Fold:
Amino acid sequence: MTSPSSQRLKPKSFADLVAQLRNFPKPQSEDSVLLRALVQLLVVVGIIATDVASEGNMIWFGWPISILAVPLTLLGGVWSWQNRQKANVGAKFFIAIGMLGMLLLFFRNLYANLNDTRLVLAELLIQLQILHSFDLPRRKDLGYSMVIGLILLGVAGTVSQTLTFAPWLILFLAIALPVLVLDYRSRLGLAGLETILWPQRSSARKGRADLLRNSPLSPKRLGAILGITLVLGLGLFSIMPRFPGYQLSTLPVSLPADAPENERFSPTNLSLVNPGYENPGSEGNENADGATFGNSPGTGAGTGEGSSPSEGQGELDKTQYYGFNSKINQNLRGEMEKVLVMRVRSQAPGFWRVMSFDRYTGQGWEVTNADDLQLTERSRWAGRFFLTPFIPNPVEKKKIIQSYTAVLSLPNIVPAMQYPTELYFPTAEIGQDPEGNLRSPLGLLEGLTYTVVSKVPYRNRTELAAAGTDYPPFVTEKYLDVPPEIKAEVRAVAEEILSQANSPITSPYEKALYLAQGLKQRFPQAQEIPFFANDEDLVEAFLFKYKGGYADHYATVLTIMLRSIGIPARFATGFDQGDFNPFTGYYLVHNTDAHAVTEAYFPGQGWFAFNPLPGYEVVPPSFEDGGAFGVLRSFWRWVAGWVPSPILGFFEGLWFTTLKILGYVVSRLWGFVSSGLVGAITGTIAVAVASMGGWFVIKQIRNWFQRRRFARLPMMEQLYQQMLLLLQNKGHQKQRTQTPWEFLRTIQPQYRPETLEILTELTEAYVNWRYGEQPANTDYLRQQLKRLRRSFYRGQS
Structure:
């Protein structure tokens, strides 16, 4: 049988339900205008930071999301303030309906963006915040808005690729500090600071400056806290180790809003087209292979107004690197203008490889059967392409994840570290030519983002040196070809360089290393040379006529030189790692970072690159150059670039001298301890004495710092901190998240009424002084603290 009271709780109609809802006790509203205003500003900063970090990828009705979201959330905050004392049942009903609609919209957007859900989540949070801003009566509701603002800032931090996010982060911190102060005061039940900042009586206004100077919102205090936070944050960021799993855990993929979706290969866009080459034709653009292309964004042909001819003498295009094409011409002269083309985030530094070429033309290279593509379709649900790596299975490999964002439109190429196995790319198909080079049906459009998972082999010098010369037929057929008219004389130069070694070199790998280094030493600097004649060979002219050449000529010469002595080799192009930005974690890759290397094949090991270009390491950068403190090392290199050479040399010399002395001392001590029984006993006693002495010294230092810290505090703060120290020694430590009253309530059952009375007096006086600007009777409280200390010492707690 139900009771009469429960029967009254059951509504008989919708009007009865609304009436019961209106009769519910109204929650205690938050009346601090300053807290509400700062919370709204905090959310606004989070919204704008996310919009800026997304670089225009968050659009509402054709407008950037912040243009509409910021006014709406501010409007909601004003409406919520004006109606904070009302039940607002109707508003809550419409807000609930709106949240359900936003949830359905979120699932739709989530389905359309399975590869990268960060911006989808941010858009949902912004929508929920707009609805939530119309219902903010309590401090707890404002807390939800603070959390949303913090999450939005976190999303912006993961999406941002430039330092434009940094000012918004600093602004967020500057606003968050007073918000936390006001929120803490509200939790303590203290009045808002409006009575201090804007007093009504003239007598009170006279003392406002002094009160504000000593208040928690003092600009001097907040500025000092903000400065300390920034310094500590940057310091910790610079020394924090970056482990591979921590560097990159998302697999972002995105396509510019104006790009065609799910583009597929067709008979008219199978070829690779570099817009830096001349592409004659009015209706379309013709590449070196004769395929015709229109000027649509999907072809990668650009405007077709490049300045580089595919054959013969000509000038380099100013922005597009000539080496990304199915056929390249190395009889070009000039320099490119430095332009940022990509941002790369990777678990390890590397050579962002683009293409390799098998056939030498005398003045350049080409890919045999470049349009014979192996097409792979992307699964809609998997969201990725599974690629076939051209690498022997027994080789030990390391999984490296890289994320690329195009800043400048590039040909329909797909840069990646060596041996990609998985590709997250926003097209329906991807192609691989006979060399394994990745080809997209789209040009690498500005704003396009994709992710690659590569399995990069370890460069085990011992195993590579023992690889032998048992090459498979498909390698010898394609990668040992040398023009007969130059083969003998090129081989003679290679053998001459090898003969200068201290001992005979028999391993193909060691020969490749030695020849790459020997080429650097024989021709130590790239130089300008005249155009080649039509019948003139590049390698022959480099070695015998001009004694040098342009940068990419070195890789051509090394490739042909290796082939001449029976080592399979090919010409490969790509981007050097670029300039690492330690603050964003991205490598900034420019068009001038593009250059060529030589790749040699070793049986059972696969292809490995060698860089003969002066000024570069013989072995291109790889994951072996990274490590737990790779960011700190890169940060030091970045700083060292700005430091004068004498100062840099002094610090480096001091560092190495210190390490040398420390290593000498440690080795001598270890030698004595491990010399016998006497050394072991002496070492054990020394360690025990040092441990006890260290513990005593640390304790004295801690007590001294504690006394010094207490001496600098105001008297009321000293008394309260001493009380907390006494309670900590009793096993009751106050947590940072606890207010003074919350802490007192947790320990209340543990103490006698007399002791609890003293604790209550000290806590109440501290709260009124710290947050209410009320003076305290410190003489009386000091006597009470002495009573408390005596009772603890006597065990009368």
Remarks:
- The first helix runs from residue 4 to 9.
- Residues 1-8, 200-207, 242-248, 281-304 have pLDDT under 50 and may be disordered.
